[in-house]
Write a structure and sequence with these properties.
The chain is α+β, with helices and mostly antiparallel strands. It has two helices and three strands; from the N terminus they run H-E-E-E-H. The protein has one domain. The longest helix is centred in the last third of the chain and has 19 residues.
Length: about 70
C-alpha cells in the first residue's frame, strides 16, 4: 500500500497533507507518493515551519521514488 492509496482509503479523497492540532501539540501527515511522512511537535508556533519543510521533503522523496 502506498502513501497515496492509504490516504485515499482513509479519507476517500486525494489529499496532500493532514494536520491535526491538539491542546498540547500537533501531528502532520504528508503524502509523498509511495511514502507517507509523519511528524509530531509540541510547539504550535513551529507548525508552519514544520509543514513547509515536510512539503519540500515530500517533493524530493516523490522525485526519488517516482520511477521505482
Amino acid at each position: 500500500m502506498t502513501g497515496r492509496s492509504t490516504i485515499q482509503t482513509l479519507f476517500q479523497e486525494d489529499l496532500s497533507e493532514i494536520i491535526v492540532r491538539a491542546e498540547n501539540g500537533y501531528i502532520v501527515i504528508t503524502n509523498a507518493g509511495r511514502l507517507v511522512i509523519v511528524c509530531a511537535g509540541t510547539i504550535i508556533d513551529t507548525l508552519m515551519k514544520t509543514v513547509k519543510v515536510m512539503r519540500i521533503a515530500a517533493k524530493n522523496l516523490y522525485k526519488i521514488f517516482e520511477g521505482r
